[in-house]
Write a structure and sequence with these properties.
single chain; 76% helix
């Protein structure tokens, strides 16, 4: 059971998130940069950035990238991996707004089907890709649309509920997505699968930042500046071995998530209207912050469907983004960490990454 849970819930989801990052996310950043530069005047270089971004964020390209990422993470044979290109493209297009979840499920099933016959015959070069593509295509036709609709409905429900109850949903979304970020699963893939945008996406960013920046600051005594970089700009997942040894070290970032989430939704009204995958990235490579900024100027299709429009950010918006992403997580976790150390709940070396 542990083997399959790791293969499907950890490896496959992480691969999907990387595929999204290397296509849709980077493409959106490049395109937004090009569009903003074009406001200064027509320039072929600026237009090239827009065109390059448009190429890489086409639904079939994004689907192919996700499927290949999933297959690569699952360590499937080469012929299965290459065949997943077509399956990912088809599943993402057919799944529409809920395409990422359709790609995740169908790519896994098609990959496993391909693995069953891989290198079992003398005509492997025909049998393996044929089985992978036929199984994946059949599943796409049968269930991709339903998976996409279900995922989109869940996403809409979360976005709508957060608008209706920003305080309580701010806490819930922030804590749950923040915990998912630190666990060895992909919070980015979860946010992408359900199209988490708007206030719900902003709460998700807040929760992720609370975990990453929180652990980085709280463990500064043990890990110094290398810990700030590896956790604050990398991943709080590095603390999982320490959390297993002493689960109490996880309480301060979770408490910070519960506090910062509703501040993001109720006070600053911070929305993530960039690509939904950014909602689950936090400060990793500053992707969460870039996603919020690109969403201000050019909301993605999912966010627009949820009612988002482009805005010119005010000083208050910028202050909110900086406070939610860096200042509040650092201050709160520093204070909580001090209290926990004094109480003896966190001992010397409990947060060491070495």
């Amino acid at each position: 059971m542990n083997k399959y849970a790791k293969r499907y819930l950890i490896d496959a989801m992480s691969g999907m998130a990387q595929g999204l990052f290397c296509s849709l996310l980077i493409a959106t950043i490049v395109r937004t940069l090009g569009n903003q530069l074009l406001l200064l005047g027509t320039n072929p270089v600026f237009q090239f950035l827009v065109d390059a971004g448009n190429f890489a964020r086409e639904p079939h390209v994004v689907g192919a990238a996700m499927a290949v990422g999933i297959g690569f993470a699952m360590k499937v044979p080469a012929l299965v991996l290459f065949s997943l290109v077509a399956i990912g493209a088809a599943a993402n297009v057919t799944g529409k707004e809920g395409g990422p979840l359709a790609v995740l499920i169908i790519a896994i099933l098609a990959a496993e089907a391909g693995c069953l016959v891989s290198k079992k015959t003398k005509v492997d070069i025909i049998v393996t890709p044929a089985v992978t593509i036929l199984v994946g295509s059949l599943l796409t036709l049968l269930i991709a649309g339903y998976i996409g609709t279900a995922a989109n409905s869940v996403g809409k429900f979360l976005v709508w509920t957060t608008k209706l109850h920003p305080f309580w949903m701010g806490i819930l979304v922030s804590v749950v997505v923040g915990i998912a970020l630190t666990l060895p699963i992909s919070s980015a893939a979860i946010c992408a699968a359900f199209g988490l945008t708007g206030l719900a996406g902003g709460a998700a960013v807040a929760g992720c930042c609370a975990q990453m920046v929180g652990f980085a600051v709280m463990s500064f005594k043990e890990n110094r500046w290398s810990g700030i970089i590896s956790q604050g700009l990398g991943t709080s997942m590095l603390q999982m071995p320490n959390i297993i040894k002493n689960p109490k070290i996880w309480i301060p970032p979770i408490l910070a998530s519960a506090i910062i989430g509703p501040i993001a939704t109720c006070l600053f009204k911070m929305e993530m209207n960039g690509e939904a995958v950014s909602s689950g990235m936090g400060t990793c490579g500053l992707v969460g912050q870039i996603g919020v900024i690109t969403g201000w100027y050019a909301p993605n299709e999912t966010a627009i469907a949820h009612g988002a429009t482009a805005i010119v950010p005010s000083l208050f918006d910028w202050i909110g983004l900086f406070a939610i992403s860096f200042v509040l997580p650092a201050i709160l976790c520093y204070i909580f960490g001090k209290v926990f150390r004094k109480a003896g709940w966190i001992k010397e070396g409990d947060l060491s990454l070495q």
